[in-house]
Every structure is written in structure tokens, then in C-alpha cells.
Amino acid sequence: MRRVRGWLLRLGGIFGRGRQERDLATELESHLQMHIEDNLRAGMNAREARRQALIELGGVEQTKEMVRERRGLQILDVLVQDLRFGARMSRKNPGFTAVAVLTLALGIGVNTAIFTAFDALVLRPRPVKDPDSLASVFRTTPGGRDGWFSYPDYLYYRDHSKSFAEFTLFAFGMAITSSDLPTTNPTSAPRFARAVGFQLPQLLQGSAQPIGCYFVSGNYFQMLGAVPLLGRIVLPSDDQLNAPPVVLMSGNFWQRLFHSDPRVVGSVLHLNGVAFTVIGVTPLDYLGTTPAVPDLWAPVAAKVHLGGLSAQDLENRLVIAGMPTGRLAPGVSLSDAQAELAVLAAQLRNSYPEDERNSSISVVSGSDNLAALDSETWPVVAAAMSAVALLLLIACANVASLLLARAAARRKEIAVRLALGAGRWRLLRQLLTESLLIALLAGALGLPLAGWMLHLLIVEIASALPSFWGTIALQISPDIRIFAYTLLVSCAAGIAFGLAPALQASKSDVNSALKEEGSAFGRHVSRSRLRGILIAGQMAACLVLLISSALLLRGSQRALKIDPGYETHRVACLEVYNPANLHYSLPRLLQLNRDLIQGVANLPGVHSVAQASRDPIGGIRWVPVSSLNAAPSIPGGGGSESPVAGYSYVTPNYFETLGIPIVRGRNFTPREADGQSPVLVISEATARRFWTGEDPIGKRLKIGSEKGTMSFPGEKDPFVASSEVIGVARDVRSMDLRKIDESYVYLPLSQTHQWTRTLLARTDGDPTPLLPAIGREVRRVDANLPVIGAPLYTMVSMNPFFVASRIGGLLASIVGILGLLLACMGVYGMVSYSVAQRTREIGIRMALGAEGIQILRLVVREGFQPILAGMLIGVATSAGVSRLMVATLFGLNPMDAVSFSGVSLLLGAIALLATWLPARRATEVDPMVALRYE
Amino acid sequence: MGERAGVWQGTLALMVLKTLQALGPLHGYGIARRIEQTSGDLLAVNYGTLYPALLKLEQEGYISSEWGTSDNNRKAKYYKLTRAGRKQLQKEAREWEQTTEILARFLTPGKESA
Question: I need a surface site. Which of A376, A430, A590, A824 has the fewest CB within 10 A?
Fold first, then answer.
């Protein structure tokens, strides 16, 4: 009880300090006086009496400090005292505080923003029941590890697997149009995408607006334990061919187009001309297992109603239907499931040997979101995270050097405190409290900054994506975990940058500091070495960032200049979505294509219109190819692996329209183009691959496999048992912009018997101004066609490597420039401090006859030393980093001299300026004033 | 203070209480002088350490203080024992006697085996 009372009183002791202090002073004073009087009576002289009294007391201030410690709760008391003092110091040096807080807030804000985005995109648990027992199943082939399944195969696994309690199917959407919705005008290219320098394809004006719809098996939502906002979820009974067509609406679509009207449930929505009943609405941002929120969800069977699949496709083991996700039965591990499915896959191979499915099974944990990041995304994510972490590091180093400078300026103050009996630990704590104060302020500022940046990022990205691609669902309001993260980072930074200067400062030599002697010659060595290391580190980090950004930007610039082997600037590329909603017969569809070509070709400014089954860049289709004349010239290799080639069905004017010369042989004749004669044009590389040194004309190739290959509905791969090579076209870069296609074959378009979606229009100049006219023409031919159009060169900008290097480069340069700014502030501060500190030394030198220029050289040389060291480290590190970026450099030498030397010189010049400006002050030192300063 | 601090701090409170019981209300200097006289030269330490100890006893309610005038007309803070302080003194004195008794028995040679 007594102890509690003591604590309470001590707690109270924090307040009402003034009176207590006065009382204490009076008490000690009377103590001293009484002692002195006693001593005088004992016969000492006045001086000695006082001295003895003080010695026996042990010092007035020391005693006061002991009493103070006892008076309040010491930790709290000291904290309050330190905070008060820290706040007072901050107010006294608003510039210092502002710079330190802003620097750190920037680092913390950027880090929090990126962390939040990463967390929300990748780490956030799926809003589903028990995500840990979910598993995704992929078909693995020698070509890839993420293949999908046909519908009959899915049913086989679903019905025979005992490892899974539930086994569902998911498929991405197709272009769906509705006559019940208002047409929305295509938005102009978003700022963000334009600033970064790539364009997303836009719907042509007046074209039909597609709706994004995902297709799921009837048990999908049950497995996820989904609860609808309104109405009900899709049930197994809906996923039947004879069931009435139903659709589930996403909360986002409901909000956007139906203004959250609850009456939408039960109403009818016409999709592709078929009446669908809206059965329910999902919560806002409901994702299921998908990466984005669609407009609508529908059962797989509905795809048949919509025309995306035929009923026969659902029974065809070669038509891809979707990606299965299952819930593991209790007690079953991933490897158990994998083993069981592998057995089932073998059974399937035995039962249906006629279908070529050289595949096995891979089971991946559904909760492992990281695994969902593919190998192309990982480096970008990792690079972005390291870049922002580096920024925080630079910010911390900068604040540390600021604090160090201030600690140096406060040497005298600290020495006085030490002399008056302050403990080192006490001093350390004082300095740490001050740095923590800065860190906390920065954290408080960084959090809203992060929120703002996130908002900007997400709103911009969301507006850059066409709405039918789905909505990126992200909760952008910072939650408590992210706040904790910010706080942790800022406090860790506070301690990290507070400790070094604090230790340094408390090492201060009382005597020399008090006499202000220490700064004369070389006494400040250890402190300036630490500052030098910090500056060097900052410079190195900046240089790595800036060189990387220069490389990436130069690489992406190069990508724009790469000659892909075909014309990109005077060609408009149109993608016409399969107009399944029209339920046209195939002859009618082909006629539609002919009408489109005719209509567009007749527009003024258009030379010719070619048609192809895929875009000249992007979209990859492979087919096995083998020579019937000779063994492939590539020796050994995979052995069992038959060579594959990219292919496209094209019209004869494809080569002329795109400016691809036929270097040997001839183009298709009109008769070949319209008929079924087994002829083809191959690329030079293909000719070299199969018949090195021989004339390829007249040779024969087998295209495709008798057994057929897995393909998406409506995109059946070719099979020609024996096809004659009639021409060789110049090599192009179409599969991957970074290199010439290894193998490519062109087949006559008439042989596809399928809808082909790509139209290429050769124009006089830039086709952009012609796009509205083309849109009107498409609308005239058939108003129900969703068409995307863009100049072909913008398709280049869709290349993932281009996007990665552009965004990466921009991010790195922003971070790098911020870092450089901070580092220069650090350099400036360091040099001006050293000049101020050495005023007397400089004065003496000048008094002894040193010229201004010599002084300048001395100061600049000393200031520039750590910068130079940092730059050397930076260049060496960059050389290592650049090697990791080779893939995104588009053939730019990773040791690109322009990037390395240019950025280094620029950085060096800026740093030199930051050194020179304050160093100039050294030459203005008046020797007389400087010496009198003593 | 060094090595003797532990003993000093531990027993100081008891000495203060005992002094106040013997001499009545007294100021800090008086207490310090008294303790020094009583202990001879054995406890020649800083008087300063007395003040935190006084504050602690006051916070715990064993002593109280008020301003008064010293013999030579000087304003001084006088401490006096409270009722709780009296009880505490008895308790601590008893404990201390026990402790010293045990230790004495322990340290006197021969007694153990007898």
C-alpha cells in the first residue's frame, strides 16, 4: 500500500515542478549555510568552510538531480522532460526539423504505399472460407506449367478424385454485349498511361461495349462459402444446359450501372440476345479466387447460351474450358492430391490415346498467393520493393548525417551537461528521444502521404484499364496493420539514425569541447569519418538507382526504335471480337469479315486491308512442325521434343500491307488463298532451321499433329499432313520483340474455317486520325461488333518487357532523383558545417598567406572524397545489378557506356556543386575575425 | 559512495527514523550531522544522499515535513515522524535486530558446532 502511495505521489510529482524546485533549492541552501556556520565555528576561514560544506554535500546540482529522480516516476518524468526539450529544440531549428521530418516522411510514405499495394494485391487473404485448404490444379506440359483443362477432363477429375471435397472450374470471360445497357463512350487515354508512354487499346468510337463476365461451375460459390449481398449465388442446378439462363452481378457493376437499385434481382438482362435472369449481387470488390472483379458471373453452361462455346465443345477433350480449383478433403495434403491426380491423368491417357495430351498434373496451394506471381512479375515486384527500401535507407542516412551535424554543433551543450554531472546513458536517452520524436512526426505525416499516393496509384491504374477487363479490387484505406507497419518503420529508423550520432555525441571530450579547442586541427576525425561513410553510402545508392533507371529507360526507348521487320507506324491494327451474340452461321461470319475489309479499304487514306488470325506482335500460337524431307538440322536437343513454330493464317496481301518482303519463291496466288491447296510461306529462320544451305522452295513440312492439340474454343490449331513451301519471308520479331522469331510459318487464311479477328489497315501516315472513320465504318457494317483499334506501334508498347522497363525506369528515376536531392542536402550540410567548424583553422591558413583558391580546393577536396568513394561503390554495384536486368533491356549492353558515364558525370557534377557552394564561404573568411573568434 | 552505497542506502531510512524518534522534529542538516556523530567516522559519506531518502520516506508517509526556523533564525524544512513511521521504525528495528543476531551467531566461531 505504502509503495502504491509512493508511486502515485511520484506520478503527481511530474507536475507542479516549479514550487518543488524552489523548495528544494531553499532546503539545500539552508543546509549549506548551517554547515558553513558550523565550519566557521570550528575555526575554518570562510572560503574553506564553504568548500568543505560543498564537498560533504556532494554538490548542490548533483543532490538536486538525485532528489528529482526520486521525485517523479523517473522514466515518465525524463520522457516528458526530453519530449519538452526535443520539442523546444525542434521549434528553435524549424529548418532542420522540417527537412528531417519531410525526408523521413517521404521514405516512410513511399514504403507504406508500396507495401500496402503489395499486401492488397498479393498477400491479402482471399475473402473465402478456409483458404488454406484450397488448391489450384494445372495441366503441365513440356511447354508450360500452367495449362488449363477441357470440360470432360475436368468432369473426370471431379467425379473420380477422392482427395478433393469439392472440385470447381473457373474460366475467364469473352466479349458479351447487352442491349439493355446504356452505351458508354470510350474514355480518352488516361493520364497515367500516357505519362508512362504506353497506350492501352481503346474501343473504337461507336463500337459495341463488351461486358466482362467470368464463368464458374455450379459448385464454385458453395465451395468458397460466398454470401451474396442480395438474392442468391450460382448453384449446381443452374449449371445445366437445360436450366434457365441466370447471371450473378458483381457489386461493382451493380453500383456503377444500376445505382445500387435492389430491384435488379429478378429482373431480366439480355446478353448476346439471350434473356438472363439476375439472381443476385455479390458484395462490393468480391474477388473469389480471381485477380480482378468481373462485371458478371455466370455458370459454365451459360457460355453455350452466349455462343462462346458449343455444346459439342463441352464434350471435346481438346477444347480448353477452364482452370480447376478444389478444396482438399480433411487430412489430405497437397502431395497426396498431386499423387492421386497423376494416377487419374495416366488413366485418362490410357482411355483416350487418340487425344494428344502430353501432360501431367501440378497441384498448387490456393492460399499461396505468392506462387500466383509469375516469373515475369517477380523481378518487377522485387525491384520496386528494393528501390523504395533503398529510398528509405537514403532518407535514414540523410537524417543521420543531419543529426550528426547537429550533434556536433551541440557538442558544447552536451559537454556542459556532462560537466554538470549528467550521465552518459541519460544523454543518450535524451538524444534518442529527440530522434524518435522526429521519426514519429514523420510517421504521422507519412501515413496520410501513403494514403494519398495509393489513392493516386489505384485510381490511375483502375482508370487506365478497360472496364470489361474487370475491376482491380483494392481496399485503399490504410488499415491498422499498415499503420503499425509505418510506425515500426519510422521507429526503427528513428533508433537506427538516432543511435550513431547519440553515441558519437556522448563520447564528447568534456575538456576540449568546453574550451572550443577541439575543432582546430584534426580533432574531429572520427565524427567526420562516420559522416563520410553516410554520404558515400547515399551517393552509392543514388547512383545504383539512377544508372538502373537510365538503363531501363534507354532500353525501353530502344524498344520503340527496334525494327521488328514490319511496318508499325502506318498500320492500324483492329481486333474484332467474335460476334457470338449474333449467332451467325460461319459463312455469314466470313462474309461479315469480307464486308469489313471492303468497307475499311474503301476509306480515303487506306491503301490495303489484310487479315490474320493473330496480331503481328503479341498473342502466341505454337504448332508442332516437322520436315518430311530431312531430319531437323538442330542436333540432339530435347530428342523427344518435336520442333514447334509460331503460325498465323494470313491473306496474300498481309506481306505487302506490313511491308514484309518475300525473299525467295512467291506469295500465295489468289487461287491458293481461296482454296485448300497445302502450301505455305515460311520465315528465313525456319528455312535455316530445317534445310541449312539448301533451297527450301518445294520442300515439304508437316504442320500440327494428327492427334490435334489443346486449344481455346474457336482457335483450333492447324493440321496439314504435308505442305509445300512456296516462299520464304524475311524474318520478323513477332513472338518476342527482343529477338527474331526462331521459327514462323504463314498459312492461307481460307484454311482456318474459323472466325479471324485481326484486321490490319495500311494507311498513308499515322493511322490515329483515321480510327474514328474506321469505327463508323465498322458500325455501318454491323453495329453489334465490339472492335478495339490502335496504331500497330502502340501494340509494341503492350509488350510486358517494355511495360516493365518503362515503369521500372520511371520508378527508379523518381526514387533516384529524390535520393539525389536528399544526398545533396547531406553533402551541403556536411561541407558548410565543416567550414563553420574550421573557421579558425582557415583564418590561420589565410593569415599565413594561403590564397582563397587554395582554401577552396582544400575544402572541396575533403568534401568530395566520400562522394567519390560512394560513386565508385555505386558504379561497381550497378554493374552487378544491370546484369540482372538484361531481359528488359532490349539488347542494350548492360554495361552501356552512356548510362554509366553519363549518370556518373551528372551525379558527380551535382555533388560537386553541393560541395562548392558552401565551400565558397571558406574563402570569405576574414583572418582577423576568425582569429578574434577565439 | 561506491561499495558502501548498498549498506548505506538500505540502513539509511532506519537511521533517519531512529534519529527523528530520538530527537523529535529536525531539519536535513541536523539529521545528517546526528547520523555522522552517532556512527563516528565509519559513515563518512555525502550528505546529499540523505535528501532522496527523506523524500522517499515522506512519499511513503513515514515522515512529514513543514517549514520552520532553525536555531540561528534560518528558514529550514523540519521533518517529523508520523504514526505510520513509528510503527515502521519498530518493525524495521525488530527485523534488523533479528538479522544482526542471526549474522552474529553465524560469524562467531565455535558456536555452530556447540
Answer: A376
